[in-house]
Structures are given as C-alpha cells and as structure tokens.
Amino acid sequence: MQVTYKPYELSAADFNKGLVSSVEPAIIGRFAGLRVVPGGGAPGAGAEMVLRSGTSLFGNNSPLVVIDGVLLDAFSHSLHASNLSWLNPDDIAAVSLLKDASATALYGGAAANGVLVITTKSGNAGDKIRLQYNATGAVSSLRKRADIFSADEFRSLIRERYPNQQHLLGEYNTDWQDEIYRTGFGLANNLNVSGAMGPVPYRVSVGQLKQDGILKTSGYKRNTLAVNLQPSLFQKHLTFNLSLHNTRQELRLADERAIPAAMAFDPTQPVYADNMYGGYFTHMRPDGYVLNYNVNPLSLLEQKENLESIRTLSGQAHVKYKLHFLPALTANYRYAYFKSEGDYRSNISADMASRAYSPINFITHDLESKIVHSEAFFALDQAIPGLSSKLSLIAGALKTTRETVSKSTENNRDDLIHSRGRNYGATHENLSYYGSLGYTLHDRYTLKGSFRNLSDLNSKEDAFRQQSIAVGIGWDLRKEAFLTNAEFISHLKIRADVGSFSRLDEPNRFRTVVWAPVQGNPFDYGFIGSRVEVDTEKTLVKSLGLEFGLMQNRLTGTLGYFQNKSSDLLIPYRPPVGSGSVRFVSLGSLSVSGLEMAMHYTVIQKEGAYLKLGMHATVVKNRLTSLGELQVYTFSENDYGLRLAVGEPAQVFNLLNQLYDKDGKPIQGEYEKNKLGYFERKPMGTNLPNTYFDLSSSGGYRNWEISFLMRGAAGHEVFHQANAQRSWLNANYDDWYVSNANRSYLETGFISPHRESSHFLEDASFLRLEYLQLGYNVGKLLGSKVDMKVNVTVQNAFVLTKYNGQDPEVANGIDRGLYPQPRTFSLGLNLSI
C-alpha cells in the first residue's frame, strides 16, 4: 500500500539524541497521544507503546507498525529484546504516527490503536556516491540509589531495637549496590554508502552496537546489514524497490532479582566466603541447611549465565508499474519475507546456593518464526479539472502466512532423568481485502473513507474475521473567500473522523483449549472441543481536530478531541485449580476520551542563527464501563496489587487501605489477619497517567547547535512493592539471618511486612530531561572533501518527582525493584564524504 496521508511525521534529523539503540527510544516523547514507557534500563530492553491509554484490557494496545509498506506482525520474536530492536535507527529516514480513523482503517482492526509508519533510507536517482560514517561512544552509570541503611546504620538499629539478634551480624561493611552495579560502556558504529549507479539508486549500510548494562553481567551486541536498490525501466514506468535487512543480536541477561536482593541482604556480611557454594557468602542454619530464599545478590549475577541470540532476516520486492495509457494509475505487487530465530540458554552453576535443592540447572528455549506477505494492489491519483476536484483510490488484497515453532527444555546437564520440555508449532494464514477512496473538491473540501476485511483461513466458521471501516471529512478554511485577506492566518483546517474496528490479537490462543459457559451461569464452564465462542473486540473511534498555521507558519500546530468506546473486551477467567486452563470471556467495555495538542514555534530563523520550540500534551479520561456480571476483577497473584472495577480507570490498584494515628503515623497491622492497621481493601489510584507532555527545543548559531527534550506525566501512581517488602527489619523472628530495610522504616517502625498496604502507593508524576546535546560543525577537511561534526550528549540527566523509588516510570505500575534507567554521557562523531 502507498499512503501519502502523514499528518504527524518525525524525520531522522529530529530523532532523540545520544546513544539510541532502537526505534522506541528514538521517538519517545515526540508524538502527541503516544506514550512510550521503557521496560527498564537493561541494554536491548523493549518499551511499551500505548496510544491514548489503549482500547483493550488484556490485548495489545500498541500502534500497528508498518515498515516500508509491510505490516509488522505483533508476534514477539524474542523473549527479552524489543520487537523492533532488529532495526537499526541509523537506517530509518522518517517515522509517522497515523491516528485518524479514516487513515488507520485501511490497515485493519489491528490499527485501532493507531499506525506507526516507518520509512527506511534509500538512494536517490542522480545522486553522486556518498560515504557517511558516524560513531557514538557512551558511559552509563546509576542515576539514583535505593534508599537503604548502610552497614553501620544497620548495626545500630539491630543493637538498639533487636539486641537478642545482634549475634547474627557480621563484621563487614558491604554496600551491595556497589557490588551489583557498575559503570557501563557503549559504542555504536555505522557506515553507509549511497548514490546512483546509472538508473539504479542504491544504499548499503553496516552497523555495530556494543553496550554494557549498569547491572553487572548484562550486555547487548547487535550487527546489522541493510541494502536498498531501486532500479527503474521504461522511463520510470516500471520501478522496483528491493530491500534487505539482516541482523544478529546477542543479549547477556542479568538476573534482575539481584536488585531487590541487594536492598535486602545483610550489609554486615562479606561478599565471599570459604564454602562449597562457589565461594559466595551464603546464609545457613546451624545444621548446614542452606537458606536459599535469601540469596547473595552477586551470586545471582555471577553464578548464572543467561544468553539469548536472535537472528533476523527481513526483505521485500515491490514492483510498481505506471500504466502508459493512464499514468495516474499504478499496478503494484509486493512480496515480503521475515524470518527470526531466537536461541535462549540459561546455565546455572551447580554449586549455586539458591539451587542446592533443585535438580534444574540448564534451561533452553528456541523460537523460530517465518512470515510471508504476498500483496497486490492498484493506486489511482487523478485530477479532474472539469470538476475542480481530485480523486485518489487504493484497492488491494494481502495474504499472510506465519509459521511458528517453539521448543523449551528444563534439565540437569548431568541427570537427564529430570529433563522436561514443551514443543509447539503452528501455521496461521489470513487473507485481507482493503480499499481507500479520497475525494477533494475545489482544493478545500475533502472526503475520505477506508476499510479492511481480514479472514482467518484456519477457521472454517470465519470466527476470527477482523474488520475496520471509517470515514473522514475535512474543510480547508484558509482557502475560503472570507479568509483571503487574513494574512496572519497561514493555514486553517478542520477535520472529523469516525471508524469502527474489530480484532483479536492472537487468534491461536483461543483455538487449543476452548470452553463455553453452562446455560444459566456465565462463570461455570464446560469443555466443548475446538469450537470458538469468543467474540472479536470492538472499538468505535471518533475524533475532531483543528490544524493551524500562523504568522507565515512560524507557529503551527494541531488541537484535537478523541473518543474511543470499546466493547466485548476479553477477560481471562481463572477456574479453580485442576479444572482447566485459563479461559476467556467477552465481557468488558471501556470508554476513553481526551484532548491532544501539538505546537511548533520558530522563534528565530535567519542566516547564521535559528531557534525552534516544540510541545505536545495529551489529557485522557479512561473509564471501565462494564464487566458483565462482574463488578470487580482481580489480577493474578503476580499482580496482586491491580484490579478492574466498573466506574474506575482501567487497572486501578487493589490494596488494603492503611489506617493512621492522630500524628499521621501508620498503625501496625496484622497482614495475614487483615485487622488493626487496615480498614478495607478497595480500588484506589491508577497506573495510567491522565496527562503526559513534552517540551523540545533546537537552536544554532553559526557552527554551534544545541537541542534538548524534557518529558513528563502526571495523574498516576506506582505501588512501591520493593519498599513494601523492605519496610521492616526481618529480625523479630527465629530466623538465622537478618535483612536490611528501606529508610522509610524510621517513619513507619513496622514490625511485620505490609506487602499490600496503601501506604506504599506513591504519586509517580515526573519531569525527566530525556537528553541535552551540544554539537559543533567542524566544517570541511582534507581539501573540502570531508564534512565533520562532533557532539556531546547527556541522557536522563535528572528526574523531578515525589516518587521515592529509583525510577517513577514502571510499565505496569508495580515497582518490584526495576532495572533503573541509567544516566548516560556520550561523545559523537559524524563524517560525510
């Protein structure tokens, strides 16, 4: 498909600066309505992208990604890396975010949360050969430490408050955070050559990235190759777009449990000891029994080797024929191929204390996927002078085949009797028809409609049909006679869209084990074989917007209102143990509405100097409107702090309401018996911000350039579970060890764990300096053949927040001890010949 509608576009020159390893950090904070939340600070880690707080409760809420016209499968190709990490940001020319239903409906039900259109770089006809090289070297460090007691402070507390346990203290002063964190180094190199060889524009690039994590033993390597050829014949009536991306990624994954372990482990104990557990100090009972639930943090890192290798091959051949007798009409055929092979290995040292009573020390997981797209479409872009109008038309069909194989094992290398494994393989095919019609009258009145109908070829009942249809209108007021003399107004256009989307993220998961409700009881299920009883999730999207330009477009921007109403949202129902696997019920309804604003202002634009400012802001209201027969739904035990409640935002916290005395000090509670310190369990707060925003600026004077991005969010909370776990001194029980605590213990004085207390629900509003860069254009070197630029950048320099944890950005709102985002300083070099 070829779509020219790109209202919000970010060029490569405007990507975020510094050591940027993948697409998500390159665009974070650059689009109104799109919230990008890093999955942590580990190198190669992915990020959660959500448009306008999403349209599903348990489904995918990220925009559909389209790369050079190819729809990227939402299926994850890695256990740990980003789904886009195989694509080198240096190979990207521009990224566009489509949000209007009349544009996104062309891509199907999966585009209910918008479409992220990525265009990669290519050569241009007539260009001379050009060689470019850029390198970025970086140093990363921990921005903020967890607020726990030092060894001397810990000794004093134990001797003062638990003198009968001071015999458990050691004689060492160990800072466990110093032991697990380090200074990380990174280096990115990119080299590309582009130009045109006769009628064949080309671009070839190679890239290499090496990055150490600030958590010991974590690291990331990536090697990329990208080739793009665009030959043409018959005076450019027949053109080809041939592209290839080949990537190999290698991740060294640290056991992130070491982070909360470092907050808890006794700081008076040594790091190493003369024992049979690899020489790492280990808590033991007098009878020699290993206390493997209190593990040496450094042992977790150095006695485990977690490696993942991912090989990705992506390519396409797009043939375009412009008809000789009707040049406005083009016939297109595209063949696209994507193959990914992931190989995960976890090797646990046999003498690691934490597995002293477990036979498993070797875990593998192999994941292979192959996706083939075969697409044919026509595109018409025809002016109709007699009617003072213009007609655009797209119509086509796409067949997609996905093959997936997954193999996993758990065993003891020396004892295969304990080996166990799971294998899974599936082939999934779908066929979609799509079309788009646009009509412009008198160059100011526009009407556009689009649709897509996707059928699952694996389902005879066609139960997984996904559909989208939308229509939009626009009016360019600036071209009306009554604004002809309004010189202050350069551009003024209003638009309105409405669209309907239906989808299922992963149809295969509803096919293996399917259950249906027994008549009269929607939550009593019986097995019915392979028949599918779930509905597609449905979303009705409405939007109204204004685009403007003032003072000869020195000030440009958009203002918009949106409203999304989703129904038949799938909710996993967990039956009693032994009665079956997780079952899904189409029950939920969700309403999301809000306002968006984007503005760009050119403060100075003259020879030798410029200054530009940009701002985006989004305000969202999110409410769960129905759960069918339910009023409250509690998440799994792993997310015990979250729930769904009708009338509340999606994903509120499910905590015990902490009671306080007259002096504002939390009252001690008996956690298991739910009395004294707690009043009741109720929904409170939300992990979804109602406001997020950014402010950016770029400027230059002569050879100097400076740019920065600040971004933030407000109106949401984070449950600081790492603090809740460490809010007390584990010293009043008959254990054989004592544990450190968070400094908040001095305020609460808790004598038992309060793991679900609302006391640890904290305001997570923040303002972050994403990056600040200063650059200098050295100019021409070597006889004016080489153009050289240098820059220095700081990323994540500071975060202004009331949150007491290490980082207020937590993807699901529960901070268990997240891998913190580091502060990074980098030096960049760019050479162009």
TrEMBL record:
It is a multi-pass membrane protein. Gene3D superfamilies: TonB-dependent receptor, plug domain. Keywords: Cell outer membrane, Membrane, Transmembrane, Transmembrane beta strand, Transport. SUPFAM superfamilies: Porins. InterPro entries: Plug_dom, Plug_dom_sf, TonB-dep_OMP_SusC/RagA, TonB-dep_OMP_SusC/RagA_CS, TonB-dep_rcpt-like. The keyword Secreted does not apply. Its main location: membrane. It is found in: Cell outer membrane. Residues 10-115 form the TonB-dependent receptor plug domain. Pfam families: Plug. It comes from the Bacteria. PROSITE patterns: TONB_DEPENDENT_REC_3. The keyword Cytoplasm does not apply. NCBIfam families: OMP_RagA_SusC, SusC_RagA_signa. Belongs to the TonB-dependent receptor family. This is SusC/RagA family TonB-linked outer membrane protein.
